[in-house]
Structures are given as C-alpha cells and as structure tokens.
Amino acid sequence: MSKHQVAMVMDLNKCLGCHTCSIACKRLWTRREGMDAMWWNSVNTMPGQGTPRNWEGMGGGFDSSGQPIPGHLPTYAEFGEAWEFEHEKVFFGGNPDATLLPLGDDPSWGPNWDEDVGAGEYPNSYYFYLPRICNHCTHPACMEACPRKAIIKRDEDGIVILNEDHCRGFRFCQEACPYKKIYFNTASRVSQKCIFCLPRIEKGVATACSRQCPGRVRFVGYLDDPEGPIHQLVYKYGVALPLHAEFGTEPNVFYVPPLSPPKFDENGIEVPGLRIPIEYLESLFGPKVKIALSTIEREMQRKRSGGTSDLMDLLISRRWLDMFKPFDKHPKDSTDVQPVKFFARGERK
Amino acid sequence: MRSQRVAAIENYMDAGAPSWSSVGAQSITMIPAPLPMQPNPYIQKSWKNRPYGLANQLFVACVHDGRRAAFRLRWHSASKTLAQGEDFPDGVAIALPVRGDPPLILMGTPDEPIHILLWQAGLPEPRSLLATGIGSSRSGPSVGASVHAHWADGRWALVVTRDLSSGVDIAPLEAGGATRVGFALWNGANKERAGIKAVSGDWTTLTLDR
To answer: Between 20 and 30 A from A59 (CA), which of A140, A328, B52, B149?
Structure first.
C-alpha cells in the first residue's frame, strides 16, 4: 500500500472537449521519436468507441474473484495512427494558396474518429466528453502482468511508473490494462504511459493536463487528505465516481457524472426525464451515479434559492489554485527546477 | 557437444560457409517453457490453451580458434519476423553458466548467475545479458559478440560468435575447458516473448578442444 495516493477528479459537467489537456501532455511528454500516435491523455465522445477502438471490450483487469482476465493487445490501427500532412509543401512550396492536405491513403480510424456522434434520436440525442489518463490504480493490472517487474507503484505518492531500462517491450502490460492506456514505442521498443507528470508533482506543480484545462475540469490532490477537494468529492459528498470499477483495478481518477440537458417531445416542449439514460451512466460509473446526480441537483437548487453549498463552491472552483492543493506551484516558481533530460536508450549508466 | 578447434574463425562467420560442412551438428530437443513456471498469473492465464514453443529441434554446431568461439544455430521457422513496428521478433538465446551450478530452467540464482547471448531478428548486434532468476536479466559483460543471420525456405541459420574469455560475471569459455550450454527459441509470428518460448530442458555439456 502506498503511503499517499495522488488522485484526480474530472467534472464532466464542465468538459467541453477542447483537447487542450491532450495537447498539453503531447507538448510536454510525447513529442519524441516513436511517440507520434501516443495520447497519454485522450478525450473521447461517449457513447463512442474511443481510443483504442472499442477499448471497453478488450479485456484485461480482474474478475470478481481477483483473477486476471486475459486482454487483447491493441494495435496502432486500433488506437488510430498519427496522420501525416503536406507541411513541407505548404510551408516551403512557394504557393501562397496551398492548403494542408493529408499524405497517403484516406484513414479509416483515428483517435477521435467518432467525435460528437454520440447516441440517441433527435431531438434527444446525447453525448458528453470523457478525458482519460492512466488511472494510477491501487491494484494495477499492468504491474502484475509484467514478468520483469518493470512497472512499480511508488510508495510516496502511488504513481504507477514504468522503468524503461527494465522494459523489454513484452507488452503484457498493454494487454492487461483494462483501460488500454499503455502505448508501445516502436522506435525505442519499450512501453510508455502517463507518468502523472511525476517530475512536476515532485516539485509541487500540478499535472500539465490539469493546469492547462481552460474549463477548470480537473482537481489534483491526495486522495487520503481529508481537507483536500479529492477526498471530499469522492468520500464526503460521493459525487466523484470511478470509471468501470468492475475492472477491479481500483482506479485513482474519478469523474463527476454529467447532468443531462433537457429532454424534448416532437413539438419541442420540454418533458421530464434524463436525456442521458441512467443505465448508460450506471454502466460507466456504477450504481451510485443516481445518488451522485441527485446530490448535485439538490445542492444546485440550494444555491439557486439563495442558500450556501460547500459542494457547489468546490465544483464551481472560483479560486483556480484551490483545485490543485498542495500542487499549486507555478512551473517557473518551483525551486531548483532543471529541464528534464531525456536519455537515449542505454545512454544513462 | 564438442567445440572443434579450427585454424581461423573467419571461415565460419557465415552459416552457409563451406567450412561448416565438416563440423558435426547436434540436435537439441526443445520443449515449450512450462506454463506453471511463467512468473505471474496473467501470463499463465492468457497463454493457457494457446500453443507456443513448437519449434522442437535446434541444430547446433560449435567451433573455436583459441580466441573466439562460433555457434551455428539452425531451426525451422515458417515465417521470418523482425523487431520492427508492432511485431515480436524471432529470436534465439544461448545460455552459459557463469559460476557454480545454476539451474537452467530457473535462469540462474542470485549467487549462480547465467550469461545469455540473445539474438533478435532485425537487430544488428546480439545482446549480452546476465540473469539471476526468471525475469531478472540485466545488461551483461561485453564478450565481443557478433551475429550473422539468414532466413530462407522456412529455416533460420545463424552464426553467433563471442570471445573465449573468463572474468567476473563472464561465463568462461576456454580452449581445453568444459562447460554447459542451454538454448531458447522465440517464434515472433506467434507473439512469443519473455517466458513464452521453446527451451532446451536442461544443460548440454560443451567441451572445447585444446
């Protein structure tokens, strides 16, 4: 058991699917060779197949008796390849009217292919955005599948980290992760995944995905800090829920489920009922989603009627830095910061 | 197995070199590495009822010239799979005990390591590894290893060479000496990697001509 567990809560009522989080992570961590198609943070429209395509049906994780479930090894075609474009021609081709066109054959899948497709029938179609990272699980299926113990869970903060010096690219971890959030670098031939911005966390700086989010969707903190927002949202108010808890890995990323927009009849008149079917939300976030939604609605109503609500103040997040305590340092203000050095394989002795 | 002394190892660097025709090859029986010995329940469960390690014969011949030793290895492999993209490569490993009496099937122990020369199709150099148990292998000492590999007609043919040497953590190979040797094979097209492999069940004695 780790002494502390860093955790994240994402409020799906606020996510507008802008992907700033994905780009923040891409710019910081996955710009290097072999990482083109990696999205350690990804945002997908739900209902949808996401990335890798149909990851929810790819197995992995544990069954109800704690036994590992064999998983499918996702391919880059299933994740969605990184598309190439005619940048050289546009930048240097000398034609001021050139437009950016793709190179190669038309793709048939991408990491966000089914964006905004959603489900349901007009006028009651529905969807929401689901950002996902490695869940730094308390019972990581990836760690238990690695025959070389190249994956460890850190004692001091519960971050699950892959040691690339020990990794041989066997990819049992990729099969075993039920969230399919591990990638394989075909250049360096090791597996790679979200590190919860470990070098920033160690300096008291929140993850890049969280700080860059313009919607104030993401809370970062210690799950075990009773004063912190994570603990309160998860345990005190019960409004932050794990994704697919039945996978058995005890994820440490939690979601505040989305309230529905109004439902309409064929004349455009509002009718009662949840536009996002409760069964769908329960299939993602478990049986407590009903209570979580009614708690949120009750507290919203309280505020509307002029009352006070600690929960609403938490979720509204007027003071941005309160979302990240104690990781509220600015990257440039954390002391003795050195640029992170990336080593070529075998370079570090 | 005998490592015949020859005049110049340079004549044996290619598996197809005519010099090899006068060197007797030994057929090593290979068996799938036992599933109950895989190091964790995930691997045991996910490979249950999935065939692996089916290449049941490895033909090995060995020569040395007093400075370097060469192992010629040949086995049937219907497909040729290189370490590129998302593929798992075909591979072969030669294991030698470093000291004491390490159990081959356990890949050595902390006090009695084994040295491994690992070749993976598509990579230019074989890797030198030291193992002190299943799942423990780390970078090993330099033994001047090189490889020449060729696949044709459903068969791999390799020559792996290394220095005759001894020293700390180096599995000793010396003219006039005797040691033991073991092998492992991976069929990349069958997604074999790690302990999902064919192995020689136990050591084979290797004596080197003076």
So the answer is: B52
